[in-house]
UniProtKB/TrEMBL annotation:
The keyword Metal-binding does not apply. PANTHER family: D-ARABINONO-1,4-LACTONE OXIDASE (PTHR43762:SF1), L-GULONOLACTONE OXIDASE (PTHR43762). InterPro entries: ALO_C, FAD-bd_PCMH, FAD-bd_PCMH-like_sf, FAD-bd_PCMH_sub1, FAD-bd_PCMH_sub2, FAD_lactone_oxidase-like, Oxid_FAD_bind_N, Vanillyl_alc_oxidase_C-sub2. This is FAD-binding protein. Residues 10-180 form the FAD-binding PCMH-type domain. One of its GO terms (molecular function) is D-arabinono-1,4-lactone oxidase activity. It comes from the Bacteria. The lineage of its organism: Bacteria, Bacillati, Actinomycetota, Actinomycetes, Mycobacteriales.
């Protein structure tokens, strides 16, 4: 049996695949694995570009442990199964008049996979998805069911929220939700220099702001999202216009241009300038999750780094200069976002406001040299790599970037002393 992730950059050949239908079945599987010295890993939707979910032995699919398990209407808290995909979660929450406070731009991940890798959205006043976790239940390396929340083992919560799959198998997650809300989205095509110069002002005065720069052009595509009450009338763009923008331009045209650029790299600058001419300004008001997320049908590989918020402009300028100096032909846009500081030990935003710079390469293009050179720039700014996106960092140099790194390892020692949940990726980023 062969498993491959969405980005076609990681492959696993598990010796056994289990699809437990109950939490007890998960406990039993872990007990058997630990007793026989085997390894067991959970796989979600496969949207991580790293080997974090690669199962070297037993692969566990939590697809049957999905859905809403409990709703606390008074406190606006919802407990869901660890295998619940985000797209399903947002629809279930909407039925209860609730929503996630913030989201990333993809909703295919499972909730346990998304928080474990530090998935985040944008918005200087908002943390990553894991900051919305107020409790979780996991199966430890001994097969024990462990509840971690504000009342039970609370000291482990900052470690478990972004646990990299190293502490246990998350079977339940309790989320602090907010009342459902709408978003007015404003999308503009603007000169990239103007956007960079006013990035702080835009992030400070807009609920959620991000931009995409198309290499070899002077153009950026900006997205500014303004939060509105749920009762706000929803106003979509013309359906034909929306289809052209989201499906034809963002997916169809982008895919065609990437494919053409892969076959003929010299044409990439002209192709990028062509695609920017197709982009246009638009505004629309939709339910929050429908604005936060977008379909992604063009396969790619990605590396993303979090740098101190104040370093964004300098780091971004170095990446622009790097592409020009090396003569690379990069068809995929670079994405820039920002997020609030948080207290989760292995969060890329731990202890500091962060700007995120993400670079991509089309699935048929080799990202090795490009990603390695960008990574060197990010490291000069004390950048921290996204755990679910490609990077070359190891435990030796990651320890300096995370003040609570050794505290996390101490929790791992208690919850998985025999390393039942280990794989090559975790050995590299956490050590033995």
């Amino acid at each position: 049996m062969t498993w491959t992730n969405w980005g076609r950059c990681e492959t696993a050949h598990p010796t056994e695949v289990l699809r437990p239908k109950t939490v007890q079945a998960v406990c039993d599987a872990v007990i058997r694995a630990t007793a026989t010295g085997r390894l067991i890993k959970v796989v979600g939707s496969g949207h991580s570009f790293t080997g974090i979910a690669v199962a070297p032995d037993i692969q566990l699919d939590l697809g049957a442990l999905a859905g809403v398990l409990d709703v606390d209407r008074e406190r606006k808290r919802v407990t869901v199964g660890g295998g619940t995909p985000l797209w399903q979660l947002t629809r279930l929450l909407a039925r209860h008049g609730l929503a996630l406070e913030n989201m990333g731009d993809i909703d295919r991940q499972t909730i346990s996979g998304a928080i474990s890798t530090g998935t985040h959205g944008t918005g200087l006043a908002f943390g990553g998805l894991a900051t919305q976790v107020v409790g979780l239940t996991l199966v430890s390396g001994t097969g024990e069911l462990v509840r971690i929340d504000e009342e039970q083992s609370s000291e482990w919560l900052p470690a478990a929220r972004v646990g990299l799959g190293a502490l246990g198998i998350i079977v339940e997650v309790t989320l602090q939700c907010v009342p459902g809300f709408a978003i007015h989205a404003i999308e503009r095509v603007e000169p990239v220099d103007d956007v960079v110069a006013t990035f702080d002002e835009r992030c400070t005065h807009t609920d959620h702001f991000e931009f995409y720069w198309f290499p070899h052009t002077d153009t950026a595509f900006t997205k500014a999202n303004i939060r509105l009450p749920a009762y706000t009338p929803l106003e979509s763009t013309n359906r034909v216009s929306q289809w052209i923008e989201e499906e034809l331009l963002e997916n169809g045209v982008l895919g065609a241009i990437c494919a053409a650029g892969s076959a003929l790299p010299a044409a990439v600058p002209t192709l990028n300038r062509t695609v920017t001419r197709f982009l246009s300004d638009r505004e629309h008001t939709q339910r929050s999750d429908r604005v936060f997320t977008s379909p992604r049908r063009v396969r790619f590989r990605e590396m993303e780094y979090a740098v101190p918020y104040e370093s964004m402009d300098a780091a971004f300028d170095e990446v622009r200069s790097l592409i020009a100096e090396r003569g690379w032909r990069i068809s995929f846009p670079i994405e820039v976002r920002a997020a609030a500081a948080d207290e989760n030990w292995l969060s890329t935003a731990y202890g500091r406001r962060s700007a995120y710079i993400a670079v991509h390469r089309y699935v048929r293009d080799d990202p090795t040299d490009y990603f390695a050179a960008v990574e060197q720039i990010m490291r000069r700014y004390d950048g921290r790599p996204h755990w679910g996106k490609m990077h070359n960092r190891t435990a030796t140099n990651l320890r300096d970037s995370y003040p609570r790194f050794d505290d996390f390892l101490a929790v791992r020692e208690k919850l998985d002393p025999r390393r039942t949940f280990a794989n090559d990726y975790l050995h590299r980023v956490l050590g033995e």
